[in-house]
Amino acid sequence: MATMIVVCRPLMLAGVMALMGLAPALAQVTPAQRQKFEAWVEHTNRTQETGPMTNATLLGFATDQVRRRQIGDTRDGFSRLFAVVIPAQANGIILAAGRADTATYGVHRTGTHLRRISSGRNINRVVSKWDGAECERDFKEQVQYWLDRSLS
Questions:
Q1: Where in the chain does DSSP place strands (E)?
Q2: Partners of 105 in the beta sheet?
Q3: Percentage of residues of the chain with pLDDT beyond 70
Q4: pLDDT digits (tens, 9 = 90+) for 56-65
Q5: With 0-12 CB in 10 A as exposed, 13-18 as middle and 19+ as buried, what is 107?
Q6: Parallel, antiparallel, or unpaired: how do β-strands 50-53 and 78-86 relate?
Q7: Distance of alpha carbon 140 from alpha carbon 115, whole angstroms
Q8: Do the Cβ atoms of 109 and 94 come closer than 8 Å?
Q9: What is the pTM (predicted TM-score) of this model?
Q10: Which of 59, 80, 138, 139 has the fewest CB atoms found within 10 Å of its own CB?
Q11: Dihedral angle at the C-alpha atoms of 39, 42, 47, 52, nearest 10 degrees?
Q12: Residue-wise pLDDT tens digits, 75-120
């Protein structure tokens, strides 16, 4: 008697991705992490620094005419940006990090759920969509930076 095995490909792929460390970053967000990220959103919304967002359609916005409030941090030539799209909208948080001297940046769109919605990167002034394991790792590192950083 033959035994039939039914394989659910999406489930199998998710298991393989988890074993390889490629599962979506921060898939299980704690209430404390969500609260901290929401505090960063509130903090950023209180800033007066606003500006246009370049290449917004690359991150899935309907138009490139997107404005943001932003805060940033630069240390040893490495810059980080936390931006909130204005007016506020779902998945309107932008994280960016990179080096100005090499014109290399990773940019990610997310929300307070801390799931990566879309990403792009700029390498030597060439902008492109970004996906894959390296992208997920960069997103996780950028989120963790803001979760670890003090609000004061």
A1: 50-53, 66-75, 78-86, 93-99, 104-110, 118-123, 126-129
A2: 98, 122
A3: 82
A4: 999 999 999 8
A5: buried
A6: unpaired
A7: 9
A8: yes
A9: 0.79
A10: 80
A11: 110
A12: 988 999 999 999 999 899 999 999 988 889 999 999 999 999 999 9
Looking up tokens 């967000």, which residue turns up?
29
| Rounded CA Rg of the chain | 18
- Secondary structure string (H, E, C) spanning 40-66: HHHHHHCCCCEEEECCHHHHCCCCCCE
Burial readout 73-94 (b: 16 or more C-beta within 10 A, e: otherwise):
eeeeeeebbbbbbbeeeebbbb
**Distances 37 to 4, 10, 20, 55, 58 between C-alpha atoms, Å:** 47, 30, 27, 24, 23
Asked if pLDDT for residue 7 goes beyond 60, the answer is no
Question: What does the alpha-carbon distance between residue 112 and residue 81 come to, in Å, rounded to a whole number?
Answer: 16
Which H/E stretch holds residue 136? Answer: helix 133-148
Residue 28, classified by CB atoms within 10 Å of its CB into exposed (0-12), middle (13-18) or buried (19+), is exposed
- 21: tokens are 């460390």
Closest CA to 25 of 89, 150, 119: 119
Q: What's the Cα-to-Cα distance from 59 to each of 14, 32, 77, 92, rounded to whole Å?
A: 24, 27, 25, 10
